[in-house]
Design goal:
The protein has 237 residues and is α/β, with parallel strands linked by helices. The protein has helices at residues 58-71, 100-113, 126-134, 155-159, 181-187, 209-223, and strands spanning 12-19, 25-32, 40-45, 73-78, 84-85, 88-89, 119-124, 142-146, 167-173, 195-199. The mean pLDDT is 98.
Length: 237
């Protein structure tokens, strides 16, 4: 059976609730490998909710559907404050990336409570802003930035990562609507150890199975490279 589209591979999946320091309940899901312990953890941060981003935005949903089985990863997804998905609606209201600092902290609290190993923040679009602004406050191995627009993260907040030993992986689509590879190279030059990956033919929304596979491959290359290459087919009983 070919692994593509909405196919969901075996995993232990649990609906979870996150509690923020300002008293909100956020809804989410934790997906774990079906029969083994995870080797690392992806804490995912979704695109802009006012433009349709949520925990089910397709790259994040497919990461949760595939990577527990294919790469032994735990995948935590959640709706930031005021965001709705089929899982439900998180309390509160969108705050432009300010109060969402507490949402990131609530997710990392779950990581700590569950003793999930080697957490990475994986942000997409708006989620990259949260990772850049607040990721250094937490015990993480690194950040993976998908289609970073750099609208909210300041130059100083980006440059601050130069003084961190956490890994910084940046996937920039060749045809991005907001930030393309040449400009991205300039904007991230303040982080000497950042690894910028220009994706030929890529677009901001990573539409299509080939783009999905490229993104998931780069995530696994950073977090658990021993699991590569990712299978494209799954055995059927």
């Amino acid at each position: 059976m070919e692994i593509r589209g909405p196919l969901e591979l075996p995993a232990r999946r649990e609906d979870i609730e996150l509690r923020t320091a300002d008293g909100l309940t956020l809804v989410g899901e934790l997906a774990l490998p079906e029969s083994t312990s995870p080797v690392a953890t992806l804490v995912t941060l979704h695109p802009l909710p006012t433009a349709g981003g949520f925990m089910d935005s397709h790259i994040l949903r497919k990461a949760a559907a595939r990577l527990p089985a294919l790469a032994e990863l735990a995948v935590l997804r959640f709706n930031t404050r005021g965001t709705t998905s089929p899982r439900g609606t998180s309390e509160g209201s969108f705050d432009g990336g300010a109060a969402e600092r507490l949402d990131v902290a609530a997710a990392m609290q779950i990581v700590q409570e569950r003793a999930l190993p080697r957490p990475w923040l994986v942000g997409w679009s708006f989620g990259t802003e949260l990772a850049l602004k607040y990721g250094r406050e937490h015990d993480i191995d690194g950040i993976i930035l998908l289609s970073p627009p750099l609208h909210r993260a300041t130059d100083a907040e980006v440059a601050a990562w130069a003084h961190s030993d956490r890994e910084v992986v940046v996937l920039v689509p060749e045809l991005d609507d907001f930030l393309r590879p040449a400009e991205a190279a300039e904007r991230f030059a303040s982080i000497p150890h950042a690894r910028l990956i220009a994706v030929e033919g890529g677009k901001h929304l990573w539409v299509g199975e080939s783009q999905t596979r490229r993104v998931l491959t780069e995530i696994v290359a950073a977090v658990n490279p021993g699991a590569l290459p990712l299978p494209t087919h799954w055995p059927v009983d």
